[in-house]
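fold-stage: in
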Amino acid sequence: MKLHREGTGILTKLFAILIVANGALYFSNAPKNIIALSAIASTIFFLLVVNFFRLPYRHFSGDDASKIVAPADGKIVAIEETTENEYFHDRRLQVSIFMSVFNVHANWYPASGKVALSKHHNGRFMAAYLPKSSTENERSTVVITLPDGREILTRQIAGAMARRIVTYAKPDQKITVNDQMGFIKFGSRVDIFLPLDTEILVELDQKVTATQTILANLVPSNKQANEEARS
């Protein structure tokens, strides 16, 4: 199993702390049952953190020209029409994926194209499943310009446990659905804002897998429709 690079430092420090703590307990002449219980609890805790930073191999092999692919593992907690006030300032379809501490927390891009905007916002740390977390929590916004010129917005949102969002996106960077967008540490969610005429292919409470589950189909743009008609 491969581990994500974001976990290397944390796991190294945690391993050292647990070794020192259990070593100190061992040499303190504590009861053997306490020493054994501490060792077992430390091992389980360390393995849970290792599991959190796992990085499975993912590759989307389909045609991604008009498809929006899940950028994160987790459960669909919102599919709704809403007003996006940070970038578009108009009505959009919002699809939200909630990640528990047991999900893979690497994030991928939901579509191929070019990064138009990458911006981090400081904020609160409310539970990520709450609607207000999308605009009030610590978050990073990434806007992707698709090959046909349309744009979609993806927002990484910190939760009650997540205190650090890592975003790799850089303006004008060319990206694909198989590139990693970032990483959110310890539970959070990802929102995707799409055109209103988008065909949504998932349902509430459905479990999705990053780079594997197709969230939606984009209706062909006028440019695409004209090209298809001429051909």
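fold-stage: in (second)
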Amino acid sequence: MHINDLLSLKGKVCLVSGGAGLYGKGITEGLAEAGGTVIIASRNGVNIEETAGTFRQNGLDVHALQVDQSDHSSVIVLKNSIMEKFGKLDVFVNNAVARPMKGYNDDLGNFDVSMKINATGMMDILREMADLIAAGGGGSVINIASMMGMFGPDISNYEGTDMGTPPPDYFFHNAGLINLTRYLARVLACKNIRVNCVSPGGLFNYQPERFLENYCKKVPLKRMANRDDIKGVIVLLASEAGAYINGENILMDGGMHA
């Protein structure tokens, strides 16, 4: 098969949870530019409608559906809506994340909230969307974790800033997601579903100057990631070009941990 055909997502229906977020927009854009029909989903219905509308103005096939990942009934409504409107699902990019904890000493009630959304809710939506993909003959699930699920925090990045200590729940659930990827790759292979993970490093979002200085001097490429950086790996894992990649976690940190 020609490489252009291997990388094409023409005729594929792709769901991106958290598709209106920083990395979510890049993921959505990449999948749509590769020819996919992309659905973005999150709790904020107005935000995702506006985001999808902007993509459509640029000629991309992007749609919006609302979902509350912490609510099983909302996940089922999303699942049914995808079937009614699009008839199938080929690719699910599990990208949504909530960050209720603000630091090490934050109230443990916020850790509970985080686990409900980022652990229980995430497993719920993964199972339901995997069932949808299986019903159509198989496809690809791509989990978005973080390099923070692979390594402890580099506290020196925060020196000279008022950003505080990074929250523990984020490290906890991203580490779990990486190994859950390996579990699902084994369990779902019989349904012709490949499951992989991408663990990005820091994404530029106008962080304080001192943080940028601290961070970028540790990256061989001397910068944080931008929105385009994640597109290629996502399209690879979603398309036939990645048909023999399964159960992998790809670290995308510009060489920081090389």
